[in-house]
Design goal:
Helix content: 10-25%
Strand order of the largest sheet: 1-2-3-5-4
Number of domains: 1
Number of strands: 5
Radius of gyration: 18 Å
CATH class: Mainly Beta
Distance between the termini: 70 Å
Strand content: 25-35%
Length: 121
C-alpha cells in the first residue's frame, strides 16, 4: 500500500513539473533544432496594424505581422511605458513557426534598445 501511494505521489509530481516546464519555453532557452530569427516585435493593434481593440503582442516577419502565441505582451514589461510595445517597435530573437496565421513562439527574447535610441529626446 505504501509503495502504491509513493508511486502515485511521484507520478503526480512528475506530471505537475512537466506541465510547468512546457509553458515556459517562449521566454526560456532556445531550442537548438529550430533557427533563431531576429524580428520586429510590438503591439499588433497599436503599432503593426493588426485588427482588434486590445493590446496584444505581435511580430513582423518578412514584412507580414502575426499575433504571438506562447508569450504575452505583459511578459516583457509595461506595454505602455516609453519603450513598451504600444509605444515602440522593438527587436526580438524568436524561435517558432507560423501556424494558422499566428506565430507560435517556443522562444522569445526581447533585445535591448540601441544606446542611441535610449538617449533620443
Amino acid at each position: 500500500m505504501k509503495s502504491l501511494l509513493l508511486l502515485l505521489l511521484l507520478t503526480g509530481s512528475a506530471a505537475v513539473s512537466r506541465a510547468q516546464s512546457v509553458a515556459a519555453p517562449a521566454q526560456g532557452a532556445a531550442v537548438s533544432t529550430t533557427p533563431i530569427q531576429t524580428v520586429e516585435a510590438s503591439c499588433g493593434q497599436c503599432r503593426l496594424g493588426l485588427p482588434g481593440k486590445g493590446c496584444d503582442l505581435a511580430v513582423r516577419i518578412d514584412g507580414k505581422a502575426y499575433f504571438v502565441e506562447g508569450t504575452t505582451i505583459d511578459s516583457h514589461g509595461d506595454a505602455h511605458a516609453k519603450d513598451g510595445f504600444c509605444q515602440a517597435i522593438r527587436k526580438a530573437e524568436v524561435q517558432g513557426q507560423v501556424v494558422n496565421n499566428q506565430f507560435v513562439a517556443t522562444y522569445f527574447k526581447l533585445l535591448p534598445e540601441p544606446a542611441a535610441a535610449k538617449s533620443a529626446p
